[in-house]
Design a protein that fits this description.
The chain is of the alpha/beta class and 733 residues long. It is 38% helix and 14% strand.
Length: 733
């Protein structure tokens, strides 16, 4: 039997779950059982948990449906626990180094306690000083083990579940489980302390609780706030059944109703039933008030008396509950020019146009990427919706003639942004765009993240210096209603990089649909348009941007590569879109396709891809064609830019570190050999999960037509997909 069982619910925190699990498995005290609780075997967190279980026999994943909530997840973990003591850890929190060793030492010293209370650290998600809210509660505790009556102010209701260690035999003997519904920590803390015979404290921070940007779900408005009264009733009823003395029930009663009064005084939390909440709270107050309980003095005492008498109107007046939370529009960024600002403000006062959608790709570079693919499918499935594409001045030619557009910064640009119900972008709309109630913002993204993104860039000085204000970035994230993902890896990383309240759509990338729908004729046509000679092997070379470079550098002598790789090789050079200045670098064996508007066309034309760390590899993998990674500066890139996984350990094909190695893999055919095929198959399994050719359809039906998720086309399994044929296949045919 292990000494400790650590239970880690993971709902909604798959992006940071690995950090929580690492903090447990990296403890100096290793006699433990780690129980990650996942929503289902196919949930994003389950994949992470399964990987850890495969590496470490101490990891025992279990499942609990999201409908069971946090209480159901923790109870499922307790049913699987075999340790002498049970600890709880949220899936995005950390067990600090040396924590288990300190807990074990304190338990040994105290000798057989039911509950050991420990300190925890609340860390702001972004900036600010961490706090230790448990320290004042535990400061007056006796040095050794003691009965709860010796410190009646320590009721347990003010401490979260992960600020205590529980003896499993004690929990089993008293049949203690987390109460269902919301505010389960409050109910659990009260029930365990009421039942405990001997307790002790450890004045050391054991858990680092990382506050979420979205805040606690318990602070959100909704009918779940009424569940608070259920937990209060449950704890005080249990205390009465055990006939606790007044010196214990008094502090318990007072602390519980402090939470009740806090909620009652915040009408924004109770979207309905304010009066019903207050009246029921008053009935509970009168029923459970300990004999001889003296109400507090001052304003708080007045609140107690008003609650006891059910004087709801007077309570509202006292607390100022009828004051509205003014949201000043002046805090929102606006267009710079006064006349444009006034025009935009006027348009914002007009009703939304339910049949207007606005699209933008790459900050207005033209008709491209996921927004273009969604737009094309919307014209087919939702022709009643008028679509307007946004482009920079001078890029009007990049929009097809039959597509309506507006130039960024123009009066019409601000007009359509103010009126559109649907706004679709693969980057972000301008700082001044207001998120109107009823509008729907879809963030499509434009790649699978290998490099660090969003707020994860903040710890990399070179990138952070170029990224602008992360606070403003998150203000833009707050406009998102939906965010697209092409694989579960992306889902987890977007959750970390762009914390917000949006809904993840694991539908695949619409721009990648063409890799499953293009025909042989399409491939032949595109190769002719690009000028690729017949019978040649077209190698697409697509290096990514380097934040520590000031301009584009190929990183490779392409002429020398062609000579060394073989006489049939030609290179399609596609620089990062940051360096698309309309210039070409063509020669007899190099075709510069940087300015070509469709990256998808270029990929369809290529027989193989050579890239370094560009996200194009994830898209190209859908074609199931050879990929070679040219990683001459991986260590530098990883240190300066930051990455989410080790590409060298999980590449999509052969890895070359020098120009000679790169040429050799083409010269000897290794780039398309069996080892390359096996690496690519594993890569596709992980990163081509949802790109089945029907992503655009799913997006249009869900976002623009409002169809329920269960009505959308299911994702076609990878083994059943037929990628567009490569030119080499067509020649053999």
């Amino acid at each position: 039997m292990p000494r400790f069982s650590i239970i880690v619910p993971s709902h909604g925190v798959a992006g940071r779950l690995s950090e929580a699990l690492d903090s447990v498995l990296g403890q100096s005290f290793g006699d433990l059982q780690l129980i990650p609780v996942c929503d289902a075997p196919d949930a994003p967190a389950a994949e992470v948990a399964a990987e850890y279980a495969g590496r470490d026999s101490r990891v025992t994943p279990v499942h609990s449906p999201p409908s069971a909530g946090l209480s159901g997840a923790r109870n499922a973990g307790m049913r699987a626990a075999t340790g002498a003591y049970v600890l709880f850890l949220d899936g995005d929190d950390l067990l600090l180094p040396g924590a288990l060793e300190a807990v074990d030492a304190r338990l040994t010293e105290a000798g057989g306690v039911d509950v050991l209370y420990v300190e925890h650290e609340r860390t702001p998600w972004w900036e600010g000083e961490p706090t230790n809210p448990a320290a004042p509660l535990l400061a007056k505790a006796p040095k050794g083990a003691f009965a709860p009556a010796e410190l009646p102010a320590l009721t347990g209701v003010q401490l979260p579940a992960w600020s205590a260690v529980h003896r499993r035999g004690f929990l089993t003997a008293h049949e203690l489980v987390f109460p269902e519904s919301h505010f389960t920590d409050l109910g659990w803390g009260g029930l365990t302390t009421v039942a405990a015979g001997r307790i002790a404290v450890l004045r050391r921070v054991v858990v680092r609780h990382r506050l979420r940007r979205q805040g606690s779900r318990l602070n959100l408005p909704g009918p779940h706030q009424h569940a608070l009264l259920d937990q209060v009733d449950l704890v005080l009823t249990r205390a009465a059944e055990r006939a606790l003395p007044a010196e214990r029930t008094g502090p318990l009663f007072e602390q519980l109703f402090a939470v009740v009064l806090k909620t009652a005084s915040r009408p924004e939390r109770l979207t309905s039933g304010h009066r019903a909440f207050f009246r029921r709270a008053g009935r509970l107050y009168r029923r459970h008030r300990p004999a001889g309980y003296p109400a507090p003095g001052g304003s708080l005492g007045v609140q107690h008396r008003l609650l006891a008498t059910g004087a709801y109107t007077a309570f509202r007046a006292l607390r100022g509950a009828n004051r509205t939370a003014a949201r000043s529009a002046g805090r929102l960024p606006r267009p710079r020019m006064l006349r444009t600002r006034l025009r935009y403000a006027r348009e914002l006062r007009r009703p939304l146009d339910p049949a207007l959608a606005v699209y933008c790709a790459y900050w207005g570079r033209g008709y491209a990427c996921n927004p273009a693919a969604i737009h094309a499918k919307a014209r087919e499935l939702a022709p009643h919706i008028r679509s307007v594409f946004l482009v920079e001045a001078g890029q009007e030619h990049a929009v097809p003639k039959d597509v309506e557009y507006a130039v960024i910064g123009s009066h019409r640009y601000w007009e359509v942004l103010a009126r559109a119900k649907y706004l679709v972008n693969n980057a972000n709309f301008a700082e001044g765009v207001v998120k109107r109630p009823g509008s729907v913002h879809l963030q499509t993204q434009h790649g699978t993240p290998l490099k660090k993104m969003g707020v994860d860039q903040s710890t990399y000085p070179v990138v952070a210096a170029q990224s602008g204000s992360f606070t403003k970035l998150l203000g833009r994230v707050d406009r998102w209603d939906f965010n697209l993902s092409s694989n579960r890896h992306s889902t987890r990383m977007w959750e970390r990089a762009f914390p917000g309240g949006y809904e993840q759509l694991e539908y695949g990338y619409p721009r990648n649909d063409v890799y499953c729908t293009a025909t042989a004729e399409d491939v032949i046509r595109i190769r002719k348009e690009l000028g690729i000679p017949e019978g040649r092997t077209a190698v697409l070379y697509a290096p990514t941007h380097r934040d520590h470079h000031t301009g584009f550098e190929t990183g490779l002598d392409l002429e020398a590569f062609c000579e060394a790789a073989g006489e049939d090789v030609v290179v399609l050079l596609r620089a990062h879109y940051f360096y698309d200045h309309g210039r070409t670098r063509n020669s007899d064996r190099i075709i510069d396709v940087t300015a070509h508007r469709s990256a998808e066309d270029v990929c369809l034309a290529a027989d193989a891809l050579v890239t370094d760390y560009s996200s194009i590899m994830f898209d190209y993998a859908n074609l199931d064609r050879p990929i070679v990674v040219y990683a001459d500066d991986w260590d530098v890139y990883r240190e300066t830019r930051g990455v989410y996984f080790d590409l060298m350990a999980e590449p999509p094909g052969p890895v070359a570190r020098t120009p000679g190695e790169l040429a050799a893999v083409f010269r000897d055919g290794a780039y398309a050999g069996p080892e390359s095929t096996a690496l690519r198959a594993a890569f596709r399994e992980r990163f081509c999960e949802f790109d089945d050719g029907r992503a655009a359809e799913r997006v249009v039906r869900r976002v623009l037509l409002g169809e329920p998720p269960e009505a959308l086309p299911a994702v076609i399994p990878l083994a059943e997909r037929v990628p567009a044929p490569a030119a080499a296949t067509l020649v053999r045919s």
